[in-house]
Design a protein that fits this description.
Blueprint (H helix, E strand, L loop, with lengths): L3 E4 L2 E4 L4 E7 L8 E7 L6 E6 L5 E3 L7 E6 L4 E6 L8 E9 L3 E4 L3 E6 L1
Parallel strand pairs: 2-11
Antiparallel strand pairs: 1-3, 3-8, 4-5, 4-9, 5-6, 7-8, 9-10, 9-11
């Protein structure tokens, strides 16, 4: 069981930047995958980016070149740096960790609103 708390969401202008943080309640070293998902009104939750301990990353096509996921194991934290924001990035962003065979935890979500 891992508790996840997101922060850093809020309002941004199109073309602006935000950095989301996700603090985990335990050491994240060895956790297979950490990632960010988002859910816009009326849409299903979608994968934004993932990262593993070895450093491999994966991004949705819609955010490639604009968003960067990273992790700091010493701080038990994963980040999502969001640059060149677009109105279509508006959504609730959720932190997620997956480990072992069936380990799966979600944060409460943090709202991101990008104005045009």
């Amino acid at each position: 069981q891992i508790q996840l708390v997101e922060s850093g969401g809020g309002l941004a202008k199109a073309g602006g930047s935000l950095r989301l943080s996700c603090a985990a309640s335990r050491n994240i070293f060895g956790i297979a995958t950490m990632g960010w998902y988002r859910q816009a009104p009326g849409k299903q939750r979608e994968l934004v980016a993932t990262i593993i301990s070895g450093g491999s990353t994966n991004y949705a096509d819609s955010v490639k070149g604009r968003f960067t996921i990273s992790r700091d194991n010493a701080k038990n934290t994963v980040y999502l740096q969001m640059n060149s924001l677009k109105p279509e990035d508006t959504a609730v962003y959720y932190c997620n960790v997956k480990w072992g065979i069936a380990g799966n935890s979600w944060g409460q979500g943090t709202q991101v609103i990008v104005s045009s």
